[in-house]
Amino acid sequence: RAYDGNEWSHATVTRRVLDELGVDEAVILGARTGSPDEWERAAADDVTVVEPEAVPDWEPAFDGDQSVYLSVDIDAADPAFAPGTGTKEPFGLTSREMRDVVRAVAPHADGFDVVEVNDRDDGQAASLAAKLLREFAFSHAAGRS
């Protein structure tokens, strides 16, 4: 419920969305590391963690009345596409793979975030995050019309 003693930390946004806003399901794209408590919470029925290795074959399966929140972990991207993150890990996703998941979930989603962006680097990760936000907005609007 808290990160480093702070339950309103940047690291608890998705948990707050589930607990406080009553969202039915959180989809987390690309999380590769976390505390034991975070992984235990992620194993619940209302959380879907789409690991980078699963992205090529993953398709969302939401019912029409379900409220969904999408959280994209920018460090799921390969460092070649987003070096500006605190946790660079090789063999990550391409920007196109990330975009495709955002496009697939956005029509069903009520909210969205991109986390782990370090804007003090070269701007590449921030640029990718901004483009994913734009893709979310366009796909969300197109899916709701």
UniProtKB/TrEMBL annotation:
Keywords for this protein: Hydrolase, Metal-binding
A GO MF term: agmatinase activity
Signal sequence bounds: none
Gene Ontology terms describing biological process: putrescine biosynthetic process from arginine, via agmatine
Keyword Lyase: no
InterPro entries: Ureohydrolase (IPR006035), Ureohydrolase_dom_sf (IPR023696), Ureohydrolase_Mn_BS (IPR020855)
Gene3D superfamilies in the record: Ureohydrolase domain
Domain of life: Archaea
Family membership noted in the UniProt record: Belongs to the arginase family. Agmatinase subfamily.
Protein name (Swiss-Prot/TrEMBL): Agmatinase
